[in-house]
Amino acid sequence: MKPFKYLSLFLFSFIGLNGNAQNQEKDILSTFHTISSHDLLNDAAELTSAKYGGRLSGSPGYQAAAEWVANQLKKAGVKPGLSDGTYLQYFPNAYSDVLSTGSVILLEGGNNMRKEYQFPEDYFPGSNSASGNVSGEVVYVGFGISAPELGYDDYKNIDVKGKILLMETGLPFSGKDSLQRWEPYSYHRYKFQQAKKMGAAGLLYIGKIANPNTSYLEGFVYAHISETVVEDLFNGTGRNYAEIHNGIKKGVLPNSFAMNKKVEISASTKHFPDSRSCNVIGMIEGSDPVLKSEAIILGAHLDAVGSPGCLFPGALDNASGSVDILAAAKALAASGVKPARTVIFVFFGGEECGLFGSTKMVESPVWPKEKVLCMINLDMVGNGTGFHISNGKTYPELFKTFADANEKYLHRELNSSEYRVNYGRPRTDAAVFDKAGYRTLSLGTTVTVKTVYYHHPLDNTDALTPEIMEDAAKLLYLGVLGLANEKMIRAE
Ligand SMILES: [Zn+2]
To answer: What residues does CATH 3.40.630.10 cover in the chain?
Structure first.
């Protein structure tokens, strides 16, 4: 958390209105009314279309989507955000193409009949699985963690050589207090590397969520599986899955065992270890000779999870946030009332691969950190009826213009929350900025009205509520303009 050095108790100016207040309001509102759910939905349809292949960071499809966004910014008169006059900030980003749905088969044995599981109902192929075919005995290894300094080892006294592991994501407890010490073990990449190191042939990862934030390991084949598959594997072991899972968490006690089942996993992939990806960065230079040295950063991740088996369109996650920001950028560029501060728009790449894009941006900033008023992040802002701004209670000076705009023109339910220290691994681009010492706000939606298909083939434009996207873009436009023109606060 980064406090303001200068706090004002009297923030009376809405959008920095003064003198010609009524004319200014007219100018602001005429642009405000050009923001339409129709355009937002069109832009979301563009980004989620098959030609971008699900925008997997590092892939040609993502690159094409990034170029489309850069072109939109250019057409709107938003300038390139990099000092060399370009929009694209590159960083290394290995990725894998998943070439088929692969297969997961429970082989005959014990009281089991052979069972071929179905894509996408029962499993998703691993986004970074090696190509090939592995089969073997299944061993349940809990959370797949060897942490001697924490007195915890899921691999203790269990032979996993040449076996297929059944493994949980996350950490073996629910309390939050010791997250810091466990953080290194919470990464999928750690778990995969540890499994390979212990000699496992393959992995069934519990939870049917496509995820490119994993390691490609030579010869290591894996898939993400549903509860149905987990239940089948537990069936006949004399153990109950929920009891075992909860027992490990309750006591932080490993409970690994051989399941006396055989499975076969196959996958067909192509790995590109030397690929690169990019952030798209645009900028509207401030109009005030003094305040223009300060910037507000608006960010959303543009990348999604690609096409592991079929197209995963990534509409809510996060074409929604991307097009919300794009619409706000267009409105701010067209507005008759100019932002006094500089506004920077960033469409992050590599978020789904492990927050690569936001990490690149804090390591190679396009604006001096001490001159950034705040960073505002949008992730999955396209399904609901209300808004939530996290950290809004910690930064009332920042929150106020959004609350004012909402009250005056949007009339949505708007909540905010206090800043909370994140001891675990950062999971959003906002958390990366937060750790680097920026003030951050995250705009989200509340009261979900449609089913959320998280990292799923059905996360398409039907999963969106365009009306909330229109209002999110309007809220951003008014709120950011208000912040950009607020003279009572300073970045430093
Ligand atoms: Zn996301």
So the answer is: 14-93+275-484
